[in-house]
Amino acid sequence: MFLDRKSLWPDLRRWEEQAAGRDGPFRLRFGTLFVADADAARDVLVEQAGDYLSQSGFFRLGPESLPPAVRGEASRELLKVLARHDPASSFDLDAALGEVCDGRGRLRHQHWGVEVVRRYFAPVIADRSHTAINALVDTYVTSSVVADDVVGHVLRRSHRTVPAVRAGLAEQLGRLSAQEDGARDLVDLVLGLPGELSTADRAQVLQRLVLSTVGFTGVTLEWVVLLGVRHGYDTPTVRREQVHHLVREALRLYPTAWRLMRVAAADHEIAGAEVREGEHVLIGTHAIHRSAAVWEAPLDFRPSRWQRPTDEQRRSYLPFGKGEGMCPASGFAVRALEHLGHLILSGYRGEVRLRTRRPHVRTLLAPPAGWTRLTARAVPAPQR
Hints:
It is built from 15 helices and 13 strands. The protein has 384 residues and is of the alpha+beta class.
């Protein structure tokens, strides 16, 4: 069913309703075990992680994760790369929004956030001197991250483009050498990965890092702005603390990473359910975040709930996963979302138009089709 390119939103809602009536994991009609309980999810991701094949959404080649030692080194280098940069200090938001809006000044959903975040993280991904690599990254973002992972349109053109982009990246990486004094950007990071990796392997890891950095963060930015505008946060007096709660609630109600998949490495049991070696376990982050047993009025958008979350709510909040496979740059991503969200909501008046009320769910859980228009607020003239 995951090869069907239609939105999976109806399936998510159905699984969520099924989970509400079950006491523990259950099997979906195609055989996958569905986990919608935070404690069982933590068992899979942390306590019983040894019963599953090692999994990484970022540091892998095809379905196979890189060795744990390589992933650990890569995660440490990634954090160092992020610490070297302060996109907030040099990012021109007005210019970025102007470049991604259409001829009518509209920001098209399932597209604009990824394009803005691509520009925001440009220094982190590749130095400006890597002209050819940056051009290939731009092509990859539009032809795969947006067209496939967000929207889910598999076009013949994109199937031709993505392998060509990887081949082009491999060619460019083959002309460079790893930095001896540490990675300065994601290009340096993949060049410095230890082990017998080909340039094509390193190009694939770079593509996955771009997807995680730009795709997941960009889609979440769209949710933050859309929800912020619709609930009156687009005001010059909005505080950073309010945006902080807004980001957390957006990630609860519409987690971009709506599910986590694991493959059993041995026969075992999870919360009373038998799991056989080779079986797939789907952790429904979306369903866990909407459990009425944990969240009061779970379908309501209530950023105020984050002023005093309960211990159970903290344990049930898994937008970035948990354990070894958790996103290593989650803290940086949240800070970027809070910075961009505050800049947009405090500096612009917003207008949202939706063509449908349903989110669009493929690899990522994206906002409904439609658009947002932002109008910059006039800057008061200095008083004499």
